[in-house]
C-alpha cells in the first residue's frame, strides 16, 4: 500500500502584491517534487522526483499552465476568500476571575479569559495598580476553537493586598480600542 498526494499552497505577501505558489508532490509522507512559482519550474527534492522534474520541465505547456496558476488559482481564490478570512474581524469576550476565593495576603491566580476572537493576533497584558506585571504571568497560548475563532487564557500569580487593583488589557484588530477589565 502507498499514498500519493499533491498539495497546492499559495503564500501571500502584502495582499496579492507578491504571491508564491507551490505544488507539492508527496509519496508516503515524503515530499519528492514540487513546482515553485518563484523559480518557474519543477524541482526534484529526492531521487524519486528527478525523472518527473526532468520530463515536466521539458513540457512548455505544463510549465506555462503551472506559472499561470499564480493568477488563476492564488490571486483569484484570495479575492474570493478575502472578505471572509483576511478582512474578517471578530472581537473577543474578556472575563477576569480568581482561581480560588480571594483572601488578603494569600497566594492566588487571576485568570484573564479571552474567547471567540478572529484573527489570532492578540495582545493580553496584566497590570497591578496601573503598572504592567511581567513576572508571574503564564499563558495557555493561542487555542483554536474549530469554528474559525480562537481563545486564550493569561494567568497572573498574585498575593493580593488591601487596595490592589488588577486589570487585564486586551488589544485586538476586532476592537475599536483596547479593552481593560479590572478585578
Automatic annotation (TrEMBL):
Keywords for this protein: Adaptive immunity, Disulfide bond, Glycoprotein, Immunity, Membrane, MHC II, Transmembrane, Transmembrane helix
**CC per GO annotation:** MHC class II protein complex
**Superkingdom, natural source:** Eukaryota
- The keyword Transmembrane helix is annotated on this UniProt entry: yes
Q: Which InterPro entries match?
A: Ig-like_dom, Ig-like_dom_sf, Ig-like_fold, Ig/MHC_CS, Ig_C1-set, MHC/Immunoglobulin, MHC_I/II-like_Ag-recog, MHC_II_a/b_N
As for membrane topology, the entry says: Single-pass type I membrane protein
An example GO biological process term is: adaptive immune response
Residue stretches making up the Ig-like domain: 92-182
Pfam families, alphabetized: C1-set, MHC_II_beta
Where in the cell is the protein located?
Answer: Membrane
**Per the similarity annotation, which family is this?**
Belongs to the MHC class II family.
PANTHER family to which the protein is assigned, alphabetical? HLA CLASS II HISTOCOMPATIBILITY ANTIGEN, DO BETA CHAIN (PTHR19944:SF43), MHC CLASS II-RELATED (PTHR19944)
This chain's protein is named: Ig-like domain-containing protein
Lineage, broadest ranks: Eukaryota, Metazoa, Chordata, Craniata, Vertebrata
Amino acid at each position: 500500500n502507498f499514498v500519493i498526494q499533491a498539495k497546492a499552497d499559495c503564500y501571500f505577501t502584502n495582499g496579492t502584491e507578491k504571491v508564491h505558489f507551490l505544488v507539492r508532490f508527496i509519496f508516503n509522507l515524503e515530499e519528492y517534487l514540487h513546482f515553485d512559482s518563484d523559480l518557474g519550474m519543477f524541482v526534484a527534492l529526492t531521487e524519486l522526483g528527478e525523472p518527473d522534474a526532468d520530463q515536466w520541465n521539458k513540457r512548455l505547456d505544463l510549465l506555462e499552465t503551472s506559472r499561470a496558476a499564480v493568477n488563476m488559482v492564488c490571486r483569484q481564490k484570495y479575492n474570493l476568500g478575502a472578505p471572509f478570512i483576511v478582512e474578517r474581524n471578530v472581537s473577543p469576550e474578556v472575563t477576569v476571575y480568581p482561581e480560588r476565593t480571594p483572601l488578603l495576603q494569600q497566594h492566588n491566580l487571576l485568570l484573564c479569559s479571552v474567547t471567540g476572537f478572529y484573527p489570532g493576533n492578540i495582545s493580553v497584558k496584566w497590570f497591578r495598580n496601573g503598572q504592567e506585571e511581567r513576572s508571574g504571568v503564564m499563558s495557555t497560548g493561542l487555542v483554536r476553537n474549530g469554528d474559525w475563532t480562537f481563545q486564550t487564557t493569561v494567568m497572573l500569580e498574585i498575593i493580593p493586598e488591601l487596595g490592589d487593583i488588577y486589570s487585564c488589557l486586551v488589544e485586538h484588530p476586532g476592537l475599536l480600542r483596547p479593552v481593560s477589565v479590572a478585578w
